[in-house]
Design goal:
Layout: H1 2-47, H2 51-72, E1 77-82, E2 90-95, E3 100-102, E4 108-109, H3 115-143, H4 151-178, H5 185-210
Length: 211
């Protein structure tokens, strides 16, 4: 009987020791979980500044793709074209800002539109530079810790969006007034890009006014 009681006492001691060890480790594990959670929250706050900024970032990315494709492609207009290589030689085909091709694609040329085409090229080039600058600045503002939340970076990205929108749409207006028929999809893409940049700039301006 005494042996049985001694075994029971030893078992109780063992169970008490095990319970004490478990209770001592639990706060450490909880602290670890809290620390991990707070680190995740810190990262989210670093990457996500505001809803308007995040929407603007997505819009600027989409607008850049639209403008790059429209800017460099040769499908702004389809119809009778005048080449600069052969004076007075008119052919039918597709034409862009920098290059045109006869509709079968066998003959390509540099389009000749005079001063209005050069003005369109100039404004679209300025819009392209401002668009790239806007994308770089908004990426710096949202994702780079050293520049995230900087007021000057935010203002510059907003201004770059408005400059890109203004230059792109001015080029569109000049081209559209001279070639007001048979406009093609490259022209439409640049038009969409200009509108999207304007919307992104407005969203950034609204976010700026709310602060």
């Amino acid at each position: 009987m005494d042996k049985v009681l001694s075994h029971v006492r030893q078992l109780k001691r063992y169970l008490l020791k095990k319970t004490d060890n478990t209770s001592q480790r639990t706060p450490e594990n909880n602290n670890h979980i809290v620390t991990s959670g707070s680190y995740s929250e810190m990262r989210i706050k670093l990457l996500v500044d505001s809803l308007f900024v995040q929407i603007s970032f997505g819009l600027v990315g989409i607008a850049n793709w639209c403008h790059v494709i429209g800017f460099f492609s040769q499908f702004w207009h389809f119809g009778p074209l005048v080449t600069s290589e052969i004076s007075g030689f008119v052919i039918r085909g597709y034409s862009g800002l920098w290059k045109g091709c006869e509709e079968t694609g066998t003959l390509c040329f540099r389009p000749d539109g005079g001063s209005w085409l050069k003005a369109t090229q100039a404004f679209e080039t300025l819009g392209f530079i401002a668009a790239v600058a806007a994308l770089i600045l908004i990426v710096l503002y949202v994702f780079v810790p050293a520049t995230s939340g900087k007021r000057i970076v935010f203002i510059l990205s907003m201004v770059a969006c408005f400059i890109a929108a203004g230059c792109i749409l001015l080029g569109i207006i000049i081209y559209g007034t001279k070639m007001d028929y048979n406009l093609s999809w490259s022209f439409a893409l640049c038009c969409i890009a200009g509108i999207i940049f304007a919307v992104a700039g407005l969203l950034l301006a609204i976010d700026f006014c709310k602060r």
